[in-house]
Amino acid sequence: MNRFLNAIAITTTLILAQSCSLLVRDEGKPISAATHQHEEHSMGEINHREHSTSGAGDEKKALTQANLKVPSIITPNKSIPILIDVQDLDGKEIAKFDIFQEKLMHLILVSDDLQFFSHLHPTYKENGQFEVAARFPQAGGYTFFSDYKPAGQAEQVSVLKTQVTGNSIASPEIDLNRNKKFNNTKVNLAVSEPTVKVGKEVTIMFKLEDTFNNQPLTDLQPYLGERGHLVILRQSTLLKAEDYIHAHALKDAPVGQVHFMASFPQPGKYKLWGQFNRNGKIVTADFWINAV
User: Fold this and answer.
1) How far apart are CA 292 and CA 290, in angstroms?
2) How far from the centroid of its chain's Cα atoms is residue 149's Cα?
3) For residues 176 and 210, what is the distance between their CA atoms, to the nearest angstrom?
4) Residues with Cβ within 8 Å of residue 167, at least 6 apart in sequence
């Protein structure tokens, strides 16, 4: 581990948000975000802010900060060791975390153009440190949304960034098609309202069928304790905590369907990734939605 730490660069300690099943909202000023410096032992600017979310109940509110540590040189399509240190604002490690959705940490990794998505679950190494391996498909900017719950406190989201050097590839055009195939699963995306309006809660419905017989799926199993999970991100030049929505599946949806409730905070294009467990294999269905 010491050899690894000597070879890594510290990217960013970034935005904290308290979140739950829906949107992380910022009640204050815009939040800036530092990026990876690609120098050994360099540290990005430290930013942290508390966000309020309904449904927190009597849980204690707290501010935390998370440090992302990655190698100074990241090679695309190679397994890269990632370390995340979670601390309080005094720099003291947070030792205990509560399990939520069957894990101690959920780490959402996306390319800044939202073409790449990965849902990771780091291993806790004690003293506030989490470890995981990640792959970066090509050169460009990447953002981590680190979702965790310090013991006895509300759920937190820290936003961290890194950069993979090299020649980046132009992003494909946005595909607004709501019928897609993902291997042997056909997915139709439907929304309860014909037009998705900013600030108005809507039901997002994934209808899943077998591509061979066009029948609703009957082999869906729980994924991380629920019927499915949905991550939504607003297309933005600089991804921030308030661009991130994590929705949980509703109960009692029809056979072969998984439903979610969400609202969209600002006008623009949003990328959705619905994740479902089909007989032990995770299906990740990605779509775009316009909000006006």
Assistant:
1) 7
2) 15
3) 22
4) 139
Element of type H or E holding 2: helix 2-6
H or E element at residue 6: helix 2-6
Helix (H, G, I), strand (E, B) or coil at 248: strand
Averaged pLDDT, 237-262 = 92
CB 49 within 8 A of CB 108: no
Give how far Cα 184 sits from Cα of 188, 206, 214, Å: 13, 15, 10
Written as six digits, the tokens of 111 are: 């390319």
pLDDT in tens, 167-211: 878 888 898 899 999 999 999 999 999 999 999 999 999 999 999
Instruction: Select from 239, 210, 211, 206 the least CA-distant residue to 223.
Output: 206
Q: Letter for the amino acid at 257?
A: Q
Please give the pLDDT value at position 115.
Answer: 94
